[in-house]
């Protein structure tokens, strides 16, 4: 089964096009103002319009007021929402869109039990826990904590890059992998060569 690839934290049209050209399946747009990868809705709409067909667009929010999510959805044609904070299932469901729920993994977590709190999610994104940092940490976590028997679709994130993603895919067998810092030249600025290398490593496993 081919592992899907999401390139997260896109802030520029050229980076979105580079991700699509490399064979990425999805791009992520961060609607969380404190992030160095945050984009304004108008810019996000421009990025989405510049994409070729069949690339999924994912909008990322962190404990945003529901009105803010709705306002973004009115301006930006997003396919999927990604909730990276403490959003409970009823909050995630209210927008009528497929969604990913991010869980930041801590030592001792029972990941099947945690994932079970969002049975309506299209996928569960597992990311590294760093106090005070909701995402984009650039840190890996202990992949041995991930159960091999899962009833949910796993999106693996956290500190992935071209040097470790093949090992991650063969060990964990996620539905998809998600990367941000590992394909950047600087925060929010992607490097097309790193994107190409990352996608190549995923697809060769
Ligand atoms: O990228 C951010 O700045 C960010 C801020 C707040 C919540 C989530 C954020 N990013 C999410 C992602 O880019 C990825 O889903 C994931 O965290 C992987 O990031 P990285 O470890 O840099 O590959």
TrEMBL record:
Pathway: Amino-acid biosynthesis; L-tryptophan biosynthesis; L-tryptophan from chorismate: step 3/5. Keywords: Amino-acid biosynthesis, Aromatic amino acid biosynthesis, Isomerase, Tryptophan biosynthesis. GO terms for biological process: L-tryptophan biosynthetic process. It comes from the Bacteria. It catalyses: N-(5-phospho-beta-D-ribosyl)anthranilate = 1-(2-carboxyphenylamino)-1-deoxy-D-ribulose 5-phosphate. GO terms for molecular function: phosphoribosylanthranilate isomerase activity. It is an enzyme of class 5 (isomerase). CDD domains: PRAI. Residues 5-200 form the N-(5'phosphoribosyl) anthranilate isomerase (PRAI) domain. InterPro entries: Aldolase_TIM, PRAI_dom, RibuloseP-bd_barrel, TrpF_fam. Signal peptide: none annotated. Its EC number is 5.3.1.24. Belongs to the TrpF family. HAMAP family: PRAI. This is N-(5'-phosphoribosyl)anthranilate isomerase.
């Amino acid at each position: 089964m081919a592992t899907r690839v999401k390139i997260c934290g896109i802030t520029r049209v050229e980076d979105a096009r580079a991700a699509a050209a490399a064979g990425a399946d999805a791009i992520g747009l961060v609607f969380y103002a404190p992030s160095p990868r945050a984009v304004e809705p108008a810019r996000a709409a421009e990025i989405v319009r510049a994409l070729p067909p069949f690339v999924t667009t994912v909008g990322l929010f962190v404990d945003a007021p529901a009105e803010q999510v709705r306002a973004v959805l009115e301006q930006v044609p997003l396919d999927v929402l990604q909730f990276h904070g403490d959003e409970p299932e009823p909050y995630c469901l209210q927008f009528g869109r497929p969604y990913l729920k991010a869980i930041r993994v801590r030592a001792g977590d029972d990941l099947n039990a945690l994932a079970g709190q969002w049975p309506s999610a299209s996928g569960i994104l597992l990311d590294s826990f760093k106090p005070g940092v909701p995402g984009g940490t650039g840190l890996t976590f202990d992949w041995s904590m991930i159960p091999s028997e899962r009833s949910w679709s796993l999106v693996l994130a956290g500190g992935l890059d071209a040097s470790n993603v093949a090992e991650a895919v063969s060990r964990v067998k996620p539905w998809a992998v998600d990367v941000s810092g590992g394909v950047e030249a600087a925060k929010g600025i992607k490097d097309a060569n790193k994107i190409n290398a990352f996608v190549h490593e995923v697809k060769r496993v």
